[in-house]
UniProtKB/TrEMBL annotation:
Keyword field contains Hydrolase: yes
This protein's UniProt keywords: Exonuclease, Hydrolase, Nuclease, Repeat, RNA-binding
The keyword Nuclease is annotated on this UniProt entry: yes
Originating species: Capra hircus (Goat)
InterPro entries to which the protein is assigned, alphabetical: Nucleotide-bd_a/b_plait_sf (IPR012677), RBD_domain_sf (IPR035979), REX1-like_exo (IPR034922), REXO1/3/4-like (IPR047021), Ribonucl_H (IPR013520), RNaseH-like_sf (IPR012337), RNaseH_sf (IPR036397), RRM_dom (IPR000504)
GO molecular function, one term: exonuclease activity
Record SUPFAM superfamilies: Ribonuclease H-like (SSF53098), RNA-binding domain, RBD (SSF54928)
Protein's recorded name: RNA exonuclease 5
GO CC entries: nucleus
Amino acid sequence: MEPERERSGSTLKKGRKRRRIPSKLVGAAEAMRSRWDFEERQQPVAKKARLSAILFAENCEVTHGQLCELLKYAVLGKSSFPKPSWCQLFHQNHLKNVVVFILQGLSQLHFYKFYLEFGFLRKAFKHKFRLPPPSSDFLADIIGLQKKQIIGNLPKAMEGSLHFASSKISINLQKDPIIQKYGSKKVGLTRCLLTKEEMKTYHFPLQGFPDCENFVPTKCNGSVTDNSPLFGLDCEMCLTCKGRELTRISLVAEGGGCVMDELVKPDNKIVDYLTSFSGITKKILKPVTTKLKDVQRQLKILLPPDAVLVGHSLDLDLRALKMIHPYVIDTSLLYVREQGRRFKLKFLAKAILGKDIQCPDRLGHDATEDARTTLELARYFLKYGPKKIAELNLEALARHQESQEPRNTAEVVQQLNTSVLECLDSVGQKLLFLTREADASALSSSKNCQTIKCLSNKEVLEQARVEIPLFPFSIVQFSFEPFSPNLTEEMNKRIKIKWTEMSTVYAGPFNKNCNLKALKRLFKSFGPVRSMTLVLETHQPHLCIQYEVLEAAQLAIESLDGVLVEGSCIKVQRPVTELTLDCDTLVNELEQDSENRGTIYLSGVSETFKEHLLQQCSLFLGLEAMILPKDLKSGKHKRYCFLRFKTFGSAQRALNILTGKDWKLKGRHALTPRHLHAWLRGLPHESRLPGVRVIPPPSEQEALQVSELMSVSWGLRGKVAQYFSFLGLGSPGTNLHSPASSRLMGIKDEEESVIS
């Protein structure tokens, strides 16, 4: 949680320039990195974005700088920014949205105190890490925002390269075709629209024309103004026995977010996939069921009445869609060229925006990239006006392209101190920041950030559902009232006691002449024992065993409860206290936690276990990490470990092998992630076993605060689940052709936030 600060004096602007449509051990780490790189090379092309992260730090902590590394790489990818040093993001180019959730006022204490209430969060977010204490502006830390960037516009890399490219060329502005058509002053959006006569001249589909009888109108018949929303559109086609037909469509909103990206299966037999242009292959299209009529229906729903479509040679896209739309800006005609010729989109992207698209080493064009580029070109024209474009002397640049190569934008954005805002700005995009009115942050004063302030958490959530699909990068901040210091201290003690009691078992009854040494060996075989006490207050002796890890206690219960030991049928159970009444439910939910689903716990491992495992690695496909905890005093490995696999199925197969007759280990699926162990070690030690101590009830005010937070957690659980369902983000990473995002969840120490 960030410390409370006074409300900033800045006020919200009442209007916008243009209305926008609402609509995831050094040696060991190096070895794992080699595995990641090999895995990425082996992956098929059409895959969803996926985060893989194995943190080897003892405290399982991710620094703010490391988190910023991941966010910047998610925005630009490996061609423009180095890979994160601590994790691997597979298929970054398939990532559609990056969304950062901040629950201000909640901490790791709240997460585990109300663990059962946060069901959706713990199942949806696969990766959870600790974060260090925040500075005065936590948001500025995680996006790498420098103090100097807060005031004024961010520097544009493209502007420097434009002047550099054109400074040596003599220009006669009056003869430039752009000045002749639009004049030298800035123009509004409506001036850039193609007239009906121009659309007829350039063969756009129009209502009533004989070759457009079966075309579907978009029903966008509203009144267009200079504030009407822009949508970038690009389509990829293949050649069928009936001519060119649609195979992919991408629609990008003005905020830069892709609101539609669909593969389409043509109705007729495909003769040529035109893969070198479209990037579409037979394998990619084989599972697709979407048809042209489905896309037409979806477009009619998505586009508002006054929508303006922007594209490059847009007439071809509309004909492929078999749709009629009255309001269009065609960038191949907007940037007018001499003698009726047209500039290629690739050239305009480089000369105007300073960015490389349609790279030759890539298979085909990226429809989303092309649609976003046309949108950026239109916005650049509206922002700087015809005179600015004419001064670039595009005709001369086209003739001298090889000798007058502009600087690559990547040279600027690869600097280590570049912020997420600058990364977004370099590709013509903005950051969306949703927060409550009372929450102040330096981020909200940045002009490259679209800030929306709300009166309540409920309004923040409602705005998020509408705005997030329109932006490639969003930060959504909820605010909650923190616990009082006294209540926080008491809850920390209770949590420590709760996990201690859950990791404790009572076993018995035993015969009075039982072999205690054999019993100790038996119970130690399930995992590390913190203490073992002989209970003599009963008619027959019992043992109280307190384990270091919850998995060991659960394994002892599952293995020995109701079993004949030393001539007695014993019962193995946890102590029944007010804190363990729901432990069976909690254990079941912990096992279903997404972070634990692919991890197994093993006890009885020897010093040579690691070498044996690596020698027979072919038996354990999908193994991502081996975690061998050490004794903090001696530095030696303990006799238990955790193995993490890519999938639950791989983990289950490995567990069956390792607990079989050949390996003779004891184990089960994991229940506790490493960051939880690190956090529990930092809490003050509390013990009340054997025996029971009754915890006094909290004061009336504290009880009310706990009750209110439980109500909030229940409501938040439902609302966040609804939001993810609305965006199609039901699991970490979804299909390439629907909005997808890999999610990271970092759990912070007390007085910190939860970052997802």
